[in-house]
Each structure stands twice: as structure tokens, then as C-alpha cells.
Write a structure and sequence with these properties.
With 424 residues, the chain is an alpha/beta fold. A nine-stranded mixed sheet has the order 1-2-3-13-4-14-18-16-17, with helices on both faces. Strand 16, helix 7 and strand 17 form a beta-alpha-beta unit. Helix 4 crosses helix 9 and helix 7 crosses helix 9. The radius of gyration is 22 Å and the shape is globular.
């Protein structure tokens, strides 16, 4: 277990952006003998061999090439953060100009170490090259205004993103683009464009009197990405074709060329299939687990949850429900996943929004508009979703690993209203 938890902390800590998360997944898959495919090349696939394909550096689909239905485990690589636009010098201070990506809890980003990471497009001769960058141990900070200047700060504060949320990067002189370029051995003049993000520099750590809790940036949704990857790699052989899909841009609606609303999954599954008819037959018996975290009942705000359908930390994997299809779970997909969890020996919890509160959506229903498969939305219960540092239970992460290992080892067959499960 110690090695597993070390792997979890390492993955969360080093996956500072969606680009880094996908690069980490790629490295792990290569070490496991998977081969990279490229969308602009012909694919020559061998039976029962592992492959993966990356789109735009921030989304990845991996699979074992088998002729059966697709058993798809999907999660997302992105988390709320600040996009860095530029460095601006004002008097003695160098500040970063930023733009919010996704819906974060603003105040959690103040007065804590933040770092900058992302990708840069650099010129090398007559070619353009994409390179991951990370300024490492160098950090910046968004300083609060002292209470002496704002006596009402504890009465609630509305943050102005163009004023209150600008990081202090340096005194006197400094340029974030030059720093980021130096981290990849390049000069600022070589940088043609960039996508840099301000991200928490806090390292994942355990908390609780028995180290049962995990405090980390990006638990939503990298804990699910980790669980999907671990379950995918530990699966036993089956008749089905296991597929790991990690999409970018869920936090901003998924409607990008690499998001769950794109054709990326369809394009990949169609190329795996021998014909359109083969694809349609396989999809009709396929199943997707859409893994994105769920709100646990809060110890200080229990009234915010549906009192009979609120998961707890440490209670097991969560099945998410919504009558308005914000989640894709239905009676059939719930029943299938419950059987999988029973086989894995994993507890299952339900999540419904409180009846008068709207909830968020996730990638399950969005992806189904492109590849129509039976889908269940699940998650790891957590607290402080979209905070700079979030909280979950370590056991729940590995319960999900166990459930997804059985899932990726399983297959199903449909005939009319009857479903036969072959559980791994």
C-alpha cells in the first residue's frame, strides 16, 4: 500500500497541468509496453497489443486491441486554475496578469505558494516544437489585503479578478516568460506562443489522526484519472476491448477539439473497428464509466446535502444521479456498475443533489452525444471541490481502483432487455 500511495501522491503532485498529466500517463504506458499512435498516420494494429493516441497534448485515449465491445473508463485531465497572460511591472513590483480558467474558490488561492507550468511553442530552426515547462521550486503569491485596511473582510468579500487575484512575482525586475523558457533550456526570443497556468505548489500530503485523508491540489479530477489508469493497467484479459479516455477542458464545458464533446473518442473507436458495421455492433454492447468526483457531506454544512443521499468520506465509490441528465446514470447502468462493485468487494454510495440546489455536470452525458453507450457517472467523495487544495479519503481512491480493475476485466452482452455480465 505504501508504494501505491506514493504513486498516487507523485502523480497528483507532478501533474500540474493537463499537459503534464497526459505526459505522465504517456510515460507510464510506454513503460508498460504500450505503443503510441498518431492521428495523421495509418494504424497497423496487432491483436491484444496496447496502444495510445494523444490529441493536442492534453487528452489521451489508450486501449488493448481486442475485437469485443468497448469497456470505456473516462475522466478529465484539467482542473480550475489561472491562465497567465503576461508579466507587468508596476513601480517596485512585478505582477502577473491572469485570467480564470474554470470555477475556482477564489479565496483559497491567496497567501499560499503558487507556481507556473504549462506548455510553450518554441522555434527550432524552421520548425515549431511544443515543450512542457515548469518553473519548479520558484513560486509566486497572491497576497491578501491586511485586515487593517479592510475591517469587513471577514464579513464576506467579493473578489475583483483584475485587482484582487493578481500574483506578486518579483521585486524590481522579472519576466515569467523568460523564466518559463529557461526551464526548458530556451530563450524568450525563441518562444512563439505559450499556455501557462498558475497552479498550486502545495505537495500532496496525508492528514487525519490515522493519515486517512489526502490533502492535495487537483484531486478533482486527477484522483479519478489515477484510479482509471491503475484499474486499466491491472485488468485481467477478457473478450472486451478496454479503453482509457482522459479528456481536457471538462471544467469549461468540454466543447473543444480535445474535449469530451469532440470527435476524439468516436474517431479512435472507429479506427479500431474493422468497418462501420463492426463499430456499430460493438458500440451497442459497450459501456462507459464516467469518473468525476462527487460532493461528500460536509461536516460543518450537512444541511447543504440531500440528507438521505449524501456520500461520506471513506464510504466507498459514489454513483451520481440526476433526473435532468446532468449525470448519465440510469437504472440499467447503475445495476451493471453495482454488480461490478459487488464483485470487487467495494462499497457503493449514492449522490443526488439537494432538491432545491442545481448541481454541476460532467463528461458522461456530453460524451454520449458523440458515442452513444450505456453510461454510469461515478466519483470519489471529496470536500472543498475546486479549492486550491482539496480533501478526500485515501481508501476511497483505492476502492475505485479495485472497482475499475474489475470493470476493465469485464464484458457484457445484450439481447432485448436482457444483459449478461461476464465479470473479471
Amino acid at each position: 500500500m505504501e508504494n501505491k500511495t506514493d504513486n498516487l501522491k507523485s502523480f497528483l503532485g507532478s501533474s500540474k497541468t493537463a499537459y503534464h498529466a497526459v505526459a505522465n500517463i504517456k510515460d507510464i504506458l510506454l513503460k508498460k509496453g504500450y505503443s503510441e499512435l498518431f492521428e495523421n498516420e495509418d494504424w497497423q494494429l496487432e491483436d491484444d497489443k496496447g496502444y495510445f493516441v494523444i490529441r493536442d497534448g492534453s487528452s489521451i485515449i489508450a486501449f488493448k486491441n481486442r475485437s469485443g465491445a468497448f469497456m470505456i473508463g473516462a475522466a478529465h485531465s484539467d482542473s480550475p486554475a489561472f491562465r497567465v497572460k503576461s508579466s507587468d511591472t508596476e513601480g517596485a513590483y512585478v505582477k502577473l496578469s491572469t485570467e480564470r480558467y474554470g470555477g475556482m474558490i477564489n479565496y483559497t488561492w491567496l497567501d499560499r505558494p503558487l507556481t507556473v507550468a504549462g506548455r510553450m511553442i518554441v522555434r527550432e530552426g524552421d520548425a515549431l516544437k511544443s515543450a512542457l515547462c515548469d518553473i519548479g521550486d520558484k513560486t509566486v503569491v497572491i497576497p491578501s489585503l491586511a485586515i487593517h485596511f479592510d475591517r469587513s473582510v471577514n464579513d464576506g468579500k467579493k473578489f475583483d479578478p483584475k485587482k484582487d487575484l493578481l500574483p506578486l512575482a518579483a521585486l524590481g525586475e522579472g519576466d515569467i516568460i523568460s523564466e518559463a523558457a529557461a526551464s526548458i533550456g530556451a530563450k524568450k526570443d525563441d518562444v512563439v506562443s505559450h499556455e501557462l497556468f498558475l497552479t498550486s505548489a502545495d505537495e500532496p500530503r496525508f492528514a487525519g489522526l490515522s493519515d486517512e485523508l489526502l490533502l492535495s491540489p487537483r484531486i478533482d479530477d486527477l484522483a479519478c484519472v489515477f484510479a482509471c489508469l491503475e484499474g486499466f493497467l491491472s485488468a485481467k484479459n477478457s473478450d472486451a476491448c478496454p479503453v482509457l479516455a482522459v479528456f481536457d477542458n471538462e471544467e469549461v464545458g468540454s466543447e473543444t477539439k480535445q474535449g469530451a464533446a469532440s470527435t476524439f473518442l468516436y474517431d479512435t473507436l472507429r479506427r479500431i473497428s474493422s468497418s462501420k458495421t463492426d463499430y456499430l455492433k460493438r458500440v451497442s454492447e459497450s459501456f462507459m464509466v464516467s469518473a468525476d468526483n462527487a460532493h461528500a457531506i460536509h461536516p460543518n454544512y450537512p444541511e447543504m446535502s440531500d440528507r438521505k443521499n449524501a456520500p461520506i468520506l471513506g464510504g466507498g465509490v459514489v454513483i451520481k444521479h440526476n433526473a435532468n441528465q446532468r449525470y448519465a446514470t440510469d437504472a440499467v447502468s447503475e445495476a451493471i456498475f453495482r454488480e461490478i462493485c459487488s464483485k470487487a468487494g467495494v462499497n457503493v454510495q449514492n449522490y443526488f443533489n439537494r432538491a432545491d440546489l442545481p448541481g454541476g455536470s460532467t463528461l458522461g452525458s456530453i460524451s454520449d452525444t458523440k458515442v452513444s453507450v450505456s453510461t454510469v457517472d461515478i466519483g470519489i467523495p471529496q470536500l472543498a471541490m475546486h479549492s486550491a487544495v482539496e480533501t478526500c479519503c485515501v481508501k476511497d481512491v483505492f476502492d475505485m481502483v479495485s472497482a475499475l480493475s474489475v470493470f476493465f476485466s469485464s464484458s457484457l452482452a445484450k439481447r432485448g432487455g436482457e444483459i449478461k455480465l461476464n465479470l473479471g
